[in-house]
Amino acid sequence: MAVTEPAPAAAPVAFEGILRRQSARESAARTYARALPIVPVRARGLTIEGADGRRYLDCLSGAGTLALGHNHPVVLEAIRKVLDSGAPLHVLDLATPVKDTFTTELFRTLPPRLADRARIQFCGPAGTDAVEAALKLVRTATGRSDVLAFTGAYHGMTAGALDASGGATGVRVARLPYPQDYRCPFGIGGTRGAELAARWTENLLDDPKSGVPGPAGMILEPVQGEGGVIPAPDDWLRRMREITAARSIPLIADEVQTGVGRTGTFWAVEHSGITPDVMVLSKAIGGSLPLAVVVYRDDLDAWGPGAHAGTFRGNQLAMAAGAATLSYVRENRLAERAAVLGARMLGQLQGLAAEYACVGDVRGRGLMIGLELVDPAAEAPTSPGPPPAAPELAADVQRECLRRGLIVELGGRHSSVVRLLPPLTLTDEQASAVLDRLADALAAAVHRHHLD
Question: Cross-referenced CDD domains, in alphabetical order (predicted)?
Answer without folding.
Answer: OAT_like
